[in-house]
Amino acid sequence: MNDAELEGFRPNRYFARSWGLLTRDRGWIKPILVMVAASLVPIVGPLGVLGYVVEWARLTAWGVASSPKQKNVQVGACIASGWRVFVIMLVWAFASSLITSVLLLVPLFGPLLLFAWMIFSVLLNLMVMIAALRATIYQRIGAGFRVSTIWQMTKSDIGGLMRILGMQLAGGAISSLICGVISIIALVGLVPQIIYYADYISEFDAIMSQSMKMNLAFEMLGSFLTTLGPALVVAVLLGAVLSMIVTMLGYTGIALWMRQFNVPAWGNEEDPLPTASPAAGAAYGAYAYGAQPQQTYGYGYGAQPAQPQQTYGYGYGAQPAQAQAQPAQQPVQPAQPVQPPAAPEPAPAPQPEPDPAPEPVQPAEPTSFSPIESDDRDAGENTDLS
């Protein structure tokens, strides 16, 4: 897949584009293996891994076509992002459990309503991912609880979310199938040993003492573990790696889906979506793949930079260029009043100039805060994934 296909928004090919972003750099498997090992660290490990995933997805939602960073990862900032997402998931899960409990108390129609809620929970899981990524874009937990805005985004393109859900289900099924095949192959190797010990017990059970039976039990256990152990270790490790890949592809798919809402044009977290947000499928939209540039924003694809921009490099290893122009969605600054020519006598009093209108708070840009962009200033907490 070429670079042009990884830019902008497209209402399809979520798996191909997510996979293309994930595997764009040589050595793309190294960050995944490091994250699998880091997830074994209690508490901070899973938080850091989750933060790393959503921070990469945040840049993807902004329109940056780059693979996961392999060097100079800011571990502390990743843990902070992971904590933010964890709180959002916890609150949404609590709300879902509360609704389930209430539906169980409804007489007569309770089971039917509960069944409908279980079906809706499939879409709810995707909404939680949207909420987590939206909070990461703003770097604020409160942005993940704007239910009306999240629901507006969800209902505008449910078909795209279903494609992402299908991608996740297919990835989980493939992962389970591979691990299951490895386990079955290992169990087949136990069949001769099971037959041997079964025949031995039936032949000598009557004359064996309790100590001999205990020794035989430990011998059987050691033999089974010796045969199954390596296969089980491979199955667990492979399952963890595949699960990590599916998680990264899922969040990246959500980020690609969110590009249709023109993330660089977002204002405050409580503001509605931009009115110029393109509709999904309508010529791929103004912020979509193959569309003409609509924004003069330094980091949005479709921008017209004043000077040639530096690339983000591979693995976010290069320093991105600074934004060259202000976002087009910001309010226009009021013009300064024209002063009349001064008369010789008397001099006119100076006219006060109106204060410029305040600019809206923009969501965090890729250069303002990103644990997965190169920043050698935090070398004290940086970790090399190479």
UniProtKB/TrEMBL annotation:
The keyword Transmembrane applies. Residues 312-386 are annotated as: Disordered. The chain crosses the membrane at residues 32-54, 75-106, 112-133, 169-196, 216-249. It comes from the Bacteria. The keyword Translocase does not apply. InterPro entries: DUF4013. Keywords: Membrane, Transmembrane, Transmembrane helix. Residues 337-363 have a biased composition (Pro residues). Residues 312-336 have a biased composition (Low complexity). This is DUF4013 domain-containing protein.
